[in-house]
Amino acid sequence: xxxxxxxxxxxxxxxxxxxxxxxxxxxxxxxxxxxxxxxxxxxxxxxxxxxxxxxxxxxxxxxxxxxxxxxxxxxxxxxxxxxxxxxxxxxxxxxxxxxxxxxxxxxxxxxxxxxxxxxxxxxxxxxxxxxxxxxxxxxxxxxxxxxxxxxxxxxxxxxxxxxxxxxxxxxxxxxxxxxxxxxxxxxxxxxxxxxxxxxxxxxxxxxxxxxxxxxxxxxxxxxxxxxxxxxxxxxxxxxxxxxxxxxxxxxxxxxxxxxxxxxxxxxxxxxxxxxxxxxxxxxxxxxxxxxxxxxxxxxxxxxxxxxxxxxxxxxxxxxxxxxxxxxxxxxxxxxxxxxxxxxxxxxxxxxx
Length: 352
Prior knowledge:
It is a single chain. The chain is an alpha/beta fold. It has nine helices and 17 strands. The protein folds into three domains: 2-122 and 164-179, Rossmann fold (3-Layer(aba) Sandwich); 211-270, SH3 type barrels; 274-351, Elongation Factor Tu (Ef-tu), domain 3, CATH 2.40.30.10. Helix 1 crosses helix 8. The longest helix is centred in the first third of the chain and has 18 residues, at 95-112.
């Protein structure tokens, strides 16, 4: 079996590479360069060269061939432009989900064509084949589990995916990195959105969308508390970065037309409770339109809610949670599960 292994310079993908090497597969490592030098050079630097240095050292140690390819244009057209348009529309995008679907298992998938049987990454997720059908399952590490970011893959993309560390917990991967004496064994995990490097998301948005002064208003009283530079810098449920004293303050609503951001100290009060939202653009990995024994994640993390789905038609539905969540943000993805099985995804269109 020929396997294309996507490596980032981090511990996870490096351990994945080593595990596949030890299983005697025919493997080639690929580093995808997506850093947008022309678009972002004025904002700061990206550690891509440092990443590539680590990748090179790991591949040399493991004696694995390495190819460096540029998918910058594809990343801009498929992921970054989507992110900008979603922000302009007042929604909360998730570029990392689109990166997997449209770049790692999309543009790169097309790049290697049928030259490789599988694409391997260092994601914390599992793929199982049962009766010629492929299933996406969660990692035993609830904190690191990354099925949320993979739930928008197509059935064909999932059939070619392999996640060599998906059955492990993070501490086990760290132990293996030390056991294998990998050059990056002590390297810390990267944080943030992949195409930004060390650049803050707010600076990126300011560069591309600009500023527009508006009011920050207390939800309950209608009192103006301060001004902001644009509603697109805020997301529902946000606590950090609001800049008000006497908090904690939370973003509870946005008025897109009037450019108003509403905040409140009483985040969990009755009038702001939400347990229903509308979704669209379903992507089911296995069974179509499931409706029993469901759980849902509305953001990456451990939190799952039991839920029910009322299908309006083939493209829209109403999701009802068993508990309230004040951070339901249009534009984010709702990812559905049946216990450890990830069923697929949809996009949140509005809270109800």
